[in-house]
Amino acid sequence: MMYKLNSLPTKKKPMGFTLPELILVLVIIALISVFAVPSYTDYVRKSYRSEAQTLITEIAMSLDTLLDTNGRLYVDKSDPYFNLQTDLGYRCIPENKDDCGSGKARFEIIIDYPTEETYTISLVARNGQVKDPCSKAGITLNSFNERTPTTAGNEDCWKK
To answer: Is the pTM higher than 0.85?
Structure first.
């Protein structure tokens, strides 16, 4: 008597994953997230600092143009030619017409006019950006194009 191979009873292969396979996948995901999330967060914070530096450079160029045009930055110190709120429409980064203390603002921009012909632009970290050790220090840019962190020891943080 001949048996056909196809007609022999076969065991049905179980469907799904075994527990060790699932644990292995979870371990791999955990390892990737341990290394990827901090790296991504650091990258995002650096890009925020770069955005802030670009903006204060643009503000400095506007102030230099005003100085060249008018010979001074203000007639009355309480009413400078360049006003963040009226000329830019905001005083926070990103553009936020609300208070800089709201949850969206990363930096607050502050302009000081020590004399009619000099200025100092400062960035102060706000909200989530305060967690960044470099941003926490802040940065200033003056009319002599000198960039300095507001806290010593953070010079490398603000290099472009």
So the answer is: no
